[in-house]
Design goal:
By secondary structure, this protein is α/β, with parallel strands linked by helices. 35% of the residues lie in helices and 21% in strands. Helix 1 (7-18) runs antiparallel to helix 2 and helix 2 runs antiparallel to helix 3 (43-66). Bound molecules: guanosine-5'-triphosphate and magnesium ion (MG).
Length: 326
Amino acid sequence: MPANLPPEYFHAEKRYRQAKSPEEKVEALEAMFSIMPKHKGTDRLRAELRTKIAKFTEESQRKLATSRKGSAYYIRKEGAGQVILVGLPNAGKSQLVSTLTEASPAVADYPFTTKAPTPGMMRFENIQIQLVDIPPIVDRNAQPWLPNLLRGADLLLIMVDLSEEPLSQIETIFGELERLKIRPIGGKEGTEPWVSQKKALIVGNKEDLEGSEENYRRLGSQYSGEFPLISISAKGGIGLEGLKEEIYRRLDIIRVYTKAPGMKADLEEPIVIKRGSTVEDVAQSIHKDFHAKLKYAQVWGSGKYDGQKVKREHILEDGDVIELHL
Ligand SMILES: Nc1nc2c(ncn2[C@@H]2O[C@H](COP(=O)(O)OP(=O)(O)OP(=O)(O)O)[C@@H](O)[C@H]2O)c(=O)[nH]1
Ligand SMILES: [Mg+2]
């Protein structure tokens, strides 16, 4: 246990030990995680917390999925990351999922069209990213299961209708999220207990409509310092390549490729892994035995030269090719 943990940490830990439901455990663990300082000495502890958070999030989702109420509403993560679309009625969330994925949720010009979450897979270069369309955030019928779903997300797309006043939309959305104890953040995680911090990207939609330019400018003047911002038309297919790239970037993942000695790497089959991962992490993700047996690796890309011999602690970069030597 590293020294200098603030008293709030121990309060949260006590809540964790006393928690009865998986939801309460997740809440306390997230508080512990956000309080814990970030440095080498806490790496292991933070990794343990992350694993526990994932475990209890899944447990609570499973619990909901098997209860009658939530039956359709547990969305299993697939692909390189789960991205959930959050917005007011009619913002165009379903339209975007329908344009970017094979899924076809109902799109209509009246509010509260979407009643249940609908996932779809979006292709980005050589990987697949999961998008999840959900009912509007103000839908009270969604309240029993929505917080859990959002807590499991890797990224939130906050979707604003640019043909309407944008700032009040964001305020309403952020207010609703806050009520669900979810705090959208643009960059680094702060240290605030009680809330689950989620990386978010603000998407202005319907850029094809009148007034959108001015509304996007207003959005920018208020939020561009804090959040990444992008303007699109989901229906008109404008700005979608840029959106995909931004989603990929914000997921904080990288792609690495493995190769066997003397062979070429298969660039169609990346291993997707968190940014900041090491050679050791990749070995472990392939097979738990590899991790123990790994002697060294050779790297093409982030090494000083091609084929450089590196240690297991070597931090990988997007596009690296590695050869593991056991
Ligand atoms: N002009 C224009 N209309 C759009 C665009 N995207 C969506 N729409 C329209 O906006 C309306 C609402 O779209 P939906 O995708 O159903 O909106 P939603 O956010 O899923 O709405 P809820 O399910 O009620 O939350 C539909 O009539 C769409 O055709 C766009 O980029 N431009
Ligand atoms: Mg919808």
